[in-house]
Design goal:
It contains one helix and eight strands. It is α+β, with helices and mostly antiparallel strands. Strands 2-1-4-7 form a four-stranded antiparallel β-sheet, with no helix packed on it.
Length: 111
């Protein structure tokens, strides 16, 4: 190995170490947008939501949800991401609830 390449390799290794250390503290996000529509025709967009935990929707809930993220999601009719009534929405797909059905109140990501 030539003596001129060693400083370049050392500098590259150092930069890579800083890049990995800088990104490791960042929370993982579902790259993209979750778009939902409330009963009052109000459209809400959530950009790059975190993939961990339960995400509550604005009251009174949503009757239409569009998943424009890179991760599949599960919708719930309860505000705590629990209960038997749920729907799986794949990436880049959407879901409309049937008339007279409870609105979607929360969601989680499948990861």
């Amino acid at each position: 190995m030539s003596p001129l390449r060693r400083p370049g390799i050392a500098a590259g290794t150092l930069l890579l170490t800083f890049a990995v250390a800088g990104c490791s503290g960042m929370g993982r996000t579902a790259v993209g947008t979750v778009i939902y529509e409330t009963e009052g025709e109000r459209v809400i967009k959530v950009s790059n939501p975190g993939v961990n935990g339960c995400h509550k929707l604005a009251p009174p809930g949503a009757h239409r949800v569009q998943n424009v993220t890179l991760i599949d999601m599960i919708m719930y009719t309860t505000p705590n991401c629990a209960g038997p009534r749920s729907a799986y929405i794949g990436t880049t797909l959407f879901d409309n609830i049937a008339p007279q059905s409870p609105t979607w109140r929360s969601y989680t990501f499948v990861h």
